[in-house]
Amino acid sequence: MEILEKVAYMKGLAEGLGLDTKSKEGKLLTVMMDILDDIALELRDLSDGQGELEEALDAVSDDLSDVEGYLYEMDGEYEEEDDEEDEDGEVYATTCPNCEEEIFFDETILADGGVECPNCGEKLDFDLEEDCGGCCGACGEKDEESEPED
What we know:
Layout: H1 3-16, H2 24-88, E1 91-95, E2 102-106, H3 107-112, E3 114-116, E4 123-125, H4 128-131
Antiparallel strand pairs: 1-2, 3-4
């Protein structure tokens, strides 16, 4: 039996006893029963509100799990894409003459003609005309040996 039902039962007992509500004791008992009724109603409302909060919290938790799954899934996709890109293009390395940090870059950086050291900020320039015979295609020139003859 819930508290509200118990208070209603107590009120029924008081009425069945023929409680004199005009006497001092009767007035006191009537006020106490009304207070207990109010408390029971308030507890029921709090319990209902707690149930609603639990449902909302469950929904938020489920949504957060979905977001985490999506983010971790996307993170994995980005890693796979990065791996595929690394496999497709060549990766080059050089050592910064200023801080001696090893720097990795791809053909697009070679085509730009330089890179900034991520460690010290030193600008490193690449002179592709001297070193490059056009074999990698980064400088825009073609290897004369690989061109078809007319």
